[in-house]
Amino acid sequence: xxxxxxxxxxxxxxxxxxxxxxxxxxxxxxxxxxxxxxxxxxxxxxxxxxxxxxxxxxxxxxxxxxxxxxxxxxxxxxxxxxxxxxxxxxxxxxxxxxxxxxxxxxxxxxxxxxxxxxxxxxxxxxxxxxxxxxxxxxxxxxxxxxxxxxxxxxxxxxxxxxxxxxxxxxxxxxxxxxxxxxxxxxxxxxxxxxxxxxxxxxxxxxxxxxxxxxxxxxxxxxxxxxxxxxxxxxxxxxxxxxxxxxxxxxxxxxxxxxxxxxxxxxxxxxxxxxxxxxxxxxxxxxxxxxxxxxxxxxxxxxxxxxxxxxxxxxxxxxxxxxxxxxxxxxxxxxxxxxxxxxxxxxxxxxxxxxxxxxxxxxxxxxxxxxxxxxxxxxxxxxxxxxxxxxxxxxxxxxxxxxxxxxxxxxxxxxxxxxxxxxxxxxxxxxxxxxxxxxxxxxxxxxxxxxxxxxxxxxxxxxxxxxxxxxxxxxxxxxxxxxxxxxxxxxxxxxxxxxxxxxxxxxxxxxxxxxxxxxxxxxxxxxxxxxxxxxxxxxxxxxxxxxxxxxxxxxxxxxxxxxxxxxxxxxxxxxxxxxxxxxxxxxxxxxxxxxxxxxxxxxxxxxxxxxxxxxxxxxxxxx
Length: 622
Ligand code: ADP
Fold this sequence. Notes:
By secondary structure, this protein is of the alpha/beta class. The protein contains 22 helices and 12 strands. The strands form 3 sheets. Strands 6-9-10-3-11-12 form a 6-stranded mixed β-sheet, sandwiched between helices. Strands 2-1-4-5 form a 4-stranded antiparallel β-sheet, with helices on one face. Adenosine-5'-diphosphate binds at residues 149, 385, 391, 411-417. This is ABC transporter ATP-binding protein.
């Protein structure tokens, strides 16, 4: 075995933490929301269809309570006639008792019904938020990598949290408006018409004026609310980039640049929020004035008719009470559209994701892969991430059971893409990828990935303990198996030296692990998975020689008896490979064993010589 080399054959990859500014993605997201002009009725119907049916029983109870609330409100207006006529005009002592207790009873019943309604409604609301979040996440899991490549995570965060809460708020608004406000209003209008028909007509004349004025406001609010939502998502995005790219933000002195971006987004949100509030508030002077004018006219007319025609003041009082009580539900009903308008943008964002077709690469209706040997073949493979550019073309490669194929070549040549295609992260556009002679498009993707262990060069750690992170290799592994895998990966020592050993937390807020330690965790995962096919993307970053040595030994053990394709950056790996393929600009330019390729005096030989010279130079310096 040759000693491993810390040097790399190809240029290091672009660091994943380059704090890439997602401006293009933002404008796409923004445009998607702005251009989604599904009508309000369309959105609301869809919300009702998808969420109302499952909660029919709950809503029926909620409506029952609302009906009681509405009935009690109308009754409280109704009873005013007898309160005034019996107590104040007729001075009936017996009725004094009856009516006082009736008023108390009405309000107590109303209080309890309101309590019941709020409890039931909140339960349904919380359930609906939870259901939508589950639905959203299930959908997300069915998208392929192409979906995630095109999106900022903050966009998804905003859609899942904003969208499901907005659905709840729209449903609440509809239920309360129809259940409580509409029934209350109808009850009160009935009281008004019954007690004083003519006065009712005067009072109700203002309704059409109110409806018309509010609908023009709604249009403007909808437009601003869309922009508001997109900017709010952008704020989350900037925070995420600041956290994830903290090192780069500091190193490149991007503080001012980030601050400017944040300022633009924040002040955009602030201005639009002000505008929305102002527009919403505009319903107040409108409704107050209209309400005041109609109440004023009614008092004028009623007072005049009571004085001149000797009508009892009871009807008048009952009518005025009903009118005053009707004012609040009428106002809320008129504003219902305004409230819904504000919630439409996040709901549309959520629908955009739910409507996005699941990726064919994740479809799982095929039969399982029948693995016999673990032979991998790429036959005339052509692929591009976008229709216009070609990343791979005419790739023919094959690795048999237990063999090792090393991919080498300059960065950007397409080596990682080949590993992605074998795992069916993307579908080839030409040719086919075969595993044991089965086209991977015709087998279930779960069974394919189950048979492949992938060790990538940037090791992602999930929030949780070290133990949890190794167990990702096989979720049903016992603690002993996890520790055995760590031992084989030369990770056991450093893990036991962590403050809480295997139970130390890693991930966003956990202990910091070095590059070498992370790689050993990744190897432990792969050992635990124990899959017949191994795909390995060797780390380009230079490791300390001890880590380097341990990783090399661990890898040697890991590849034993498996079909391995490795993106090789180290001489040791290359020398131990059965076959080496040089990938340049999406093509296999040379293929063979190390001695064959050196003899060819082509691209490989140059790469190797460069490496060799570097080694000599290093030795000379040492
Ligand atoms: P290598 O592994 O040899 O460095 P890659 O397979 O990573 O090369 O990349 C090959 C080409 O594909 C590069 O030009 C790269 O920019 C492009 N590429 C890689 N990943 C993506 C992606 N997710 N979307 C678009 N282009 C990509």
